[in-house]
What we know:
The chain is an alpha+beta fold and about 130 residues long. The chain has two domains: about 10-45; about 50-130, CATH 2.40.50. The chain has three helices and five strands; from the N terminus they run ααβαββββ. The protein has helices at about 10-15, 25-45, 75-80, and strands at about 50-60, 85-90, 95-100, 110-120, 125-130. A five-stranded mixed β-barrel has the order 1-2-3-5-4. Strand 4 and strand 5 form a beta hairpin. The longest helix is centred in the N-terminal third of the chain and has 25 residues, at about 25-45.
Amino acid sequence: MWRAEGESQDEFYASIAIDGDGAKERVMKKIGFLGAAVLMFVGLCLAAGKQQTFTGAISDSMCGAEHMMEGSAKDCTLKCVDSGSKFILVDSKGKIYQLSDQTKPRAFAGANVKVVGTLNGDTINVTSITAVK
């Protein structure tokens, strides 16, 4: 709704008010809420990380980069996870990333992989995991 030419701001607000009292305040509150909602939406869009690719080995949070049990890295990782540890990704520099998905990594336990996802702090929100040869 647009103001008519020559119509004052107060006349405009009075014309759209149901009861005439507090119309300007109600309209300004609605505009304020709408502005806040737009800013929050833009902030969320900017905060959403971009897809990245990470490479490393699937391990567990108990052992990290060094497996403590005898046997293969896969066996150790699966035993530790079955005992309550979490799957993690250890990159070639030894940096450890938590993995949001604790189901997909099971098939790649102890193996070198490529993980695609978004990074949030030290956690990768996993989109996909593929083996690297």
